[in-house]
Design a protein that fits this description.
This protein is mostly helical. About 75% of the residues lie in helices and about 0% in strands. The longest helix has about 55 residues. The two termini are about 45 Å apart.
Length: about 150
């Protein structure tokens, strides 16, 4: 006569995955599924249930962190694009001021020249930093997905 071995699949899945954010103990599972606690402990140890649960929890945490990061990356992208737009606005204002000077409607002096040089330098820094940030996001250097090959 052969003995029928219980199927631990449902108990294993319940232990590893839990329900919502609650994870049962082996004692809880043995009571719920009417298994012997000592037999269930052996089964769990042989199949590495605790290790699998920990891996699952760690993966869940990583995924949540990455979702949060991607939201921040989107915001960072918008900030970078706004910085580039602001720089373009500054550059256009300086171009308009130069036209006014050429038409003789505005007097050119050292203060205007200094202000324009300072504004252009800062506008170019904004453009460079904005483009650099956008390139890093686009190329994945700032993405948390670069080290997630095992998913």
């Amino acid at each position: 006569m052969t003995t029928k071995h219980p199927d631990y699949a449902e108990a294993r899945n319940y232990y590893i995955k839990g329900e919502k954010n609650e994870y049962p103990t082996l004692q809880d599972i043995s009571t719920e599924f009417n298994y012997s606690l000592s037999t269930l402990r052996k089964q769990a140890a042989n199949e590495g249930w605790l290790k699998k649960r920990k891996e699952r929890l760690k993966l869940k945490q990583i995924i949540n962190m990455r979702k949060e990061f991607m939201g921040k990356a989107t915001k960072l992208t918008n900030v970078s694009l706004n910085a580039i737009s602001a720089a373009e606005y500054i550059i256009n204002q300086i171009k308009d001021e130069q036209k006014q000077i050429k038409l003789g409607k505005k007097v050119f002096d050292v203060h205007i020249a200094t202000k324009q040089i300072w504004a252009l330098n800062n506008a170019m820094k904004l453009v460079e930093k904005g483009n650099e940030t956008l390139d890093e996001i686009e190329n994945g250097y700032m993405s948390p997905y670069s080290d997630i090959g095992y998913l």
